[in-house]
Amino acid sequence: MNISITKLKERRHQPWKKNNLEEKAAYLFLLPWLIGLMVFILGPALATGVISLTNWNMITQPAWVGPANYIKMMGDANFWQSIRVTLYYMVLAVPTLSIVGLLVSLLLNQRLPGMNFIRTVLYLPAVLSGVAVAVLWLSLLNPDAGVINSALRALGIANPPNWLNDAQWAVPAVVLISLWGVGGNAIIYLAGLQNIPPGLYDAASIDGANDIHKFFSITLPLLSPTMFFVLITNLVGAFQVFDIAFILGGSRGGRGGSLLFYLLYIWNEGFRSSRMGYASALSMVLIIISSLVIVVVVNTSDRWVYSEVEEK
């Protein structure tokens, strides 16, 4: 009798041991990622914060200046110009990429002959190098001999935009180039669309719902978590524009600073002007601004992101 009671107690404690083993195994598999996080992200971020309080040209010993670099930003015209250019691009690009990606995914979700080939073709530009894409679009957006303006003139537009040579059209041109890689967003949307149970659409059809009703009552609510993910990635990408801006506008940010994106300005200050302390301060401001934007989006997501809660 005592033996059976002992075995019963051992069996009762076995699930706890199993859970502990699974938890340890999980941490073991996460260890390489955690080490990478500490070494390549948190470590450099902390070092950047310290360097931002110094005056350092990467050759001589850093000189402690405290918050002087941050105070200097308030009167730096190029700093405010880079903020304006980046925010302007974000306002134009984020909704455009999100909406166009959704529309393309709706097309790719159709069951048509050769759809797998079409999906592959639309996704391929998303994996090309940003430098190669920028060089290609430099030719396409040439105001005199480019294909884009030639097509616009053929459509009857006598004075097409000068694109990169016009300060007003420079950022919209970058947004146009960004649409080249919209296949990446479309594939993510497509995965979300294919996770929606088809039975919901069948039930809605029985109730007399048309395609528009199905889209707004079923597709959008159930796709909202995917839309939230795409929104976050597009916002992060908007803060990280560098290679395209560098190729299209040069290191000085194009005509009148129209393409002086924030990362490009950081690069100029850190590597062209050898003001690594000031560049580090700019980097810390970028971390703060991008974090605030992401926090606001996450905290307001419960108002429009549908989350399915299991009933107890």
Q: What value does the Rg take, in angstroms? A: 26 Å
Distance between the termini: 39 Å
Specify the CATH architecture of the largest domain: Orthogonal Bundle
Number of helices: 13
Following the backbone from N to C, one meets helices and strands in this order, namely: HEEHHHHHHHHHHHH
What is the helical fraction, as a range of percent? over 70%
> How many structural domains does the protein architecture include?
2
CATH topology of the largest domain: MetI-like fold
Average pLDDT score: 89
Please describe the biggest sheet, giving its number of strands, its sense, and whether it closes into a barrel. 2 strands, antiparallel
Structural class computed from helices and strand pairing: mainly alpha
- The side-by-side strand order for the widest beta sheet comes to 1-2
| Shape annotation | globular
Strand content: under 5%
Number of strands: 2
Corresponding CATH superfamily of the largest domain: MetI-like
Describe the structure.
The chain has 312 residues and is mainly alpha-helical. It folds into two domains: 2-51; 76-303, MetI-like (MetI-like fold, Orthogonal Bundle), CATH 1.10.3720.10. The protein contains 13 helices and two strands; from the N terminus they run αββαααααααααααα. A two-stranded antiparallel ribbon has the order 1-2. α1 packs across α13 (276-300). The mean pLDDT is 89.
